[in-house]
Amino acid sequence: MHKLTPLLLILTAAAALAGPTIAILDFEAVGCSAELARGAAELLRASLSEHAELTLVERARLAEVMSEQALALSGVVDADTAVEVGGLLGADYLLVGGVTLLGGRYTIAARFVDAASGEVVIGVQDDAQVERRIPYVCRDLAEEVAEAAGALPVETPTEETPYLIGLDLEGTVIFHLAGDIHALNLASGVGRQLTFDGLSWQSAITPDGRRIAFSSKRGGDLDLYLMDPDGGDQVTLLDTPHIEDAPCWSPDGRRVAFHTERDGNWEIYSIAIDGSELQRLTDHGAEDSYPSWSPDGERIAFMTRRGAYTGGYEVYVMNADGSDPRRVAAGMYPSWSPDGESLAYVHDHDGDGGFDLYLTGLDDDDARRLTDDGGAKRFPRFTADGRTILFDDAHIDIFAYSLDTADVYRVTWNGCVVPSYGETR
After folding, report:
1. Would you say 359 and 343 are in contact if contact means Cβ atoms under 8 Å apart?
2. Could you say which DSSP state residue 69 is in?
3. Residue 4 in this model has a pLDDT that exceeds 50
4. C-alpha torsion sign, points 101, 103, 104, 110
5. What pLDDT is stored for residue 16 in this prediction?
6. Is 219 strand, coil or helix?
7. Three-class DSSP category at 357
């Protein structure tokens, strides 16, 4: 069993300041499912959690208090109730709102309420023409709310920042924190901020650690960029009026696969690192997204809604040219083991909204459940030795699962999400 070996955690001045406490209630659903409305609230929670100076009331605590007082988790509308709920939760502000589906268009509206007075500090609203745009709308709305709460912008660090890690690992993990891409040396616990636009999202590092692909809205739309592992030599890989996201590398580092909605729904493409040879790999009416390239370069795993499974997403594997797609398991966010024999993924097996880690061969009969604690696990990534799986949980931080001991360790404590793993250069 690994021993906990915490390193010194140095907080920035902004993060060290005591900030306001915010309670985010479930959003009301009008013309859409309650699950979708709740999901929108959780997306706002995830984005706000990236601001270290804001304190968010845990949803479990929120549910407990509201249940004790026979209050609904959604629908706080009047000032007196807002003040009452704020007092019960010890919150400075409440975020309440709803999602309305009308005429095929989703409207997400939220009110940021002062819990002391019941007055609305700011109201924010935006539309999503299709459901898949809701995460991007929620992310933008969250930034407006954070600004209203007085969240300080992330300061550019002048030196390397140590993070807190709980087990001995080698390699580098690249991740998203407060709108930018960061890198963490797992052996030393030293991290470094790589982008400073506040608009970067998902990233992937080559297995040998020599190059990083990432998505960013720095040009207006979510496009793809490349940079060195120290953040230098940042260049545009693909800049279009469409969304390009979730990059992953071919094992030889010559191509990047990604998903895009340029064809009206999410499909998977790949492109050479010089920006040439754009190739469409999937062509299906259902959503295909989050590709993962096999270590031998021959196959790509991805998640999709194309199958008959009624619970949501499934994991498929296809040849690297897009041919011969076939189902492997029910689940999301597949990631190859270093030997190419297994896939890690997450799945809500119990249908209760809690996503756990799973491991399977290329046959669903081989699937093995690794965790059973719910949460909202995403983006599993193997370390180089294939014995540890990194992932983020509940949009809070990065954790590690040991295949040797079945223990789970917390790797970061700063609100780091969306990990990618590679060698340290």
Report:
1. yes
2. T
3. no
4. negative
5. 36
6. coil
7. strand
Q: Which of 353, 329, 356, 355 is nearest to 343 (CA)?
A: 329
Distance between CA 314 and CA 292 in Å, rounded?
14
Which residues are bridge partners to 258 per DSSP?
Answer: 269
Write down how long the chain is. 425
Domains and CATH numbers, the chain: 15-148 (3.40.50.10070), 161-422 (2.120.10.30)
pLDDT digits over 289-327, tens only? 999 999 999 999 999 998 765 558 999 999 999 999 999
User: Which pair of tokens denotes residue 308?
Assistant: 């008959």
User: How high is the pLDDT of residue 18?
Assistant: 52
Provide the sign of the torsion angle of the four alpha carbons 55, 61, 65, 71, taken in this order.
positive
Q: How far apart (Å, rounded) are the C-alpha atoms in residues 371 and 356?
A: 5
**How high is the mean pLDDT of the chain?**
84
Model confidence over 5-48: pLDDT tens digits?
Answer: 332 232 233 333 457 899 888 888 899 888 788 888 888 888 88
Which amino acid, 93? Answer: Y
Whether 313 and 304 have beta carbons less than 8 Å apart is answered as yes
For residue 65, the SS3 value is helix
- Residue 401 pLDDT more than 70? yes
| Cβ neighbour number for residue 266 with a 10 Å cutoff | 24
| CA distances (Å), origin 342, targets 233, 268, 345, 410 | 34, 21, 10, 24
- 205 phi, psi to nearest 5 deg: -105, 140
Rounded to an integer, what distance in angstroms lies between the CA atom of residue 127 and that of residue 125? 7
Summarize pLDDT for 83-111 with one digit per residue, the tens: 888 888 888 998 888 899 988 888 999 88
Taking the alpha carbons of 129, 131, 136, 139 in that order, is the dihedral positive or negative?
Answer: positive
Quote the pTM value: 0.65
Distance CA 372, CA 392 (A): 15
What value, to the nearest 5°, has the Cα angle with vertex 421 and ends 417 and 425? 125
